[in-house]
């Protein structure tokens, strides 16, 4: 392993730890933002998400203009209606699980039992997808859209800097108004509370740092399929070998720091996916755990109503499946895809809203009756 | 009004988000007559930071007094009428 790879591991862990810390202190739960829009008509947290995107837009564009990193980032491809379907299912899953992929991870770090259940569900769902992959390729082909463009600027034939230049002033004006009328602030009644708008700024900067470090924004979901592969390969080697999905190598690129071409996929083994995503995952758990321990709030409570146990596991499974179908999770698309105008991310977002609405309905009717 | 209100304690520690907030809203609405008359005081135990903030904002906006006290590894939220 080269010193560049070691730098990527150490840097990824540090970025994850900072993200986990910020998310725990501000409870920056993206699943909750979408869910609470429908359950409580609450928009405060969603506004901070727009702030995060608004900061990331010029930040990613500036990084692109340096020529240090190529945009669109690895993993992004032309849009398909599978992005919409994936976003919809992901929306249902994240609400039932009580958090998105990253949300359940930082909660797990802070000692949340539902977070642990959702994590296991995510691994199970991602692994189940491998079995469904042959059928999914037919669906995916049928739902493909007739364009090779990956981003909106590519589709429109316009330079991305022009779209950034047109959009950012409008967003900044809107956000400035929210700052002035106080609608970005929350009453921090808990210990060590960090205002979510501050966390949003921090997460946007961490996203930029991730792009500089590994050539792509914060993303972790392929690793969940890899965790599944690592369990399945020794337990059922013949079945594992029969699954084509685990032979795929969707990531093939040269990191910005150099070190030559690296590649990886969801299958068993420590490859480029593990290099980029494992340190981030460990970092998020560690950062959140550190935050909770510092506050004296780390506590694992196993007692949970059975409906909530089912909801957390099932939500995790649905999210795991959806994150392979979409592909990727809300953090990848909202924090990383929207700021580069990725068409896949627009479709994912369009699916996420009705998914979160339906998830909220199921949650309040079946899991936690009001 | 009785001198000492009845205290109803609900332990929601460790539960899935947003169980704490939904339960707090449900209990507040179900018991609003007793809460407003000062006969009842709701005490919610939670380790969910987001729900603690959300309860303080939402139920406070409904005209109740919401007091948040940090205990060992969790928060004690008391909801009663504004005296």
TrEMBL record, chain A:
Transmembrane segments annotated in the record for this chain: 6-24, 45-65, 85-106, 113-136, 156-179, 200-220, 272-293, 305-326, 346-368
Compartments where located: Cell inner membrane
Entry keyword Transport: yes
Domain of life: Bacteria
GO cellular component: plasma membrane
Record keywords: Cell inner membrane, Cell membrane, Membrane, Transmembrane, Transmembrane helix, Transport
Record-stated family: Belongs to the TsuA/YedE (TC 9.B.102) family.
Name this protein carries in UniProt: Uncharacterized protein
UniProtKB/TrEMBL annotation, chain B:
Gene Ontology MF terms in the entry: transferase activity
Pfam family, one: TusA
Record protein name field: TusA-related sulfurtransferase
Chain ranges of the UPF0033 domain: 8-80
Keyword entries, A-Z: Transferase
Keyword Transferase: yes
């Amino acid at each position: 392993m080269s010193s560049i790879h070691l730098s990527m591991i150490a840097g990824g862990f540090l970025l994850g730890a900072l993200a986990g810390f910020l998310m725990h202190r501000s409870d920056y739960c993206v699943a909750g933002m979408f869910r609470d829009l429908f359950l409580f008509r609450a928009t405060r947290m969603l506004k901070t998400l727009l702030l995060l995107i608004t900061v990331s837009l010029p930040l990613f564009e500036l990084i692109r203009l340096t020529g240090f990193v190529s945009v669109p980032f690895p993993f992004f491809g032309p849009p398909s209606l599978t992005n919409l379907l994936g976003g919809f299912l992901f929306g249902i899953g994240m609400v039932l699980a009580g958090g998105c992929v990253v949300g359940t991870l930082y909660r797990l770090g802070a000692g949340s039992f539902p977070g642990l259940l959702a994590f296991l569900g995510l691994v199970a769902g991602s692994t189940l997808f491998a079995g469904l992959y042959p059928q999914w390729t037919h669906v995916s082909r049928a739902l493909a859209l007739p364009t090779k463009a990956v981003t909106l600027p590519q589709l429109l034939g316009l330079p991305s800097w022009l779209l950034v230049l047109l959009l950012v002033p409008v967003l900044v004006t809107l956000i400035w108004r929210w700052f002035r009328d106080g609608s970005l602030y929350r009453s921090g009644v808990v210990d060590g509370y960090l205002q979510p708008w501050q966390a949003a700024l921090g997460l946007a900067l961490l996203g930029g740092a991730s792009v500089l470090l590994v050539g792509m924004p914060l993303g972790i979901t392929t690793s969940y399929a890899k965790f599944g592969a690592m369990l399945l390969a020794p337990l059922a080697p013949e079945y594992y070998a029969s699954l084509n999905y685990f032979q795929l190598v969707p990531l093939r690129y040269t990191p910005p720091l150099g070190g030559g071409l690296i590649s990886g996929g969801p299958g068993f083994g420590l490859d480029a996916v593990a290099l980029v995503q494992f340190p981030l995952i460990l970092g998020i758990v560690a950062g959140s755990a550190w935050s909770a321990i510092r506050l004296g709030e780390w506590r694992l409570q196993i007692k949970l109503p059975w409906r909530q146990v089912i909801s957390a596991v099932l939500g995790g499974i649905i999210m795991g499946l959806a994150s392979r179908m979409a592909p990727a999770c809300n953090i990848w698309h909202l924090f990383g895809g929207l700021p580069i105008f990725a068409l896949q991310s627009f479709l994912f977002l369009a699916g996420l809203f009705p998914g979160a609405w339906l998830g909220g309905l199921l949650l309040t009717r079946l899991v936690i009756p009001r | 009004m009785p001198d000492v209100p009845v205290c109803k304690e609900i332990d929601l520690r460790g539960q899935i988000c947003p169980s704490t907030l939904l339960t707090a809203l449900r209990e507040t609405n179900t018991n609003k007559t007793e809460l407003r008359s000062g006969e009842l005081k709701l005490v919610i135990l939670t380790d969910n930071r987001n729900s603690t903030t959300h309860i303080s904002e939402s139920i406070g906006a409904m005209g109740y007094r919401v007091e948040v006290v940090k205990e060992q590894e969790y928060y004690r939220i008391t909801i009663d009428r504004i005296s």
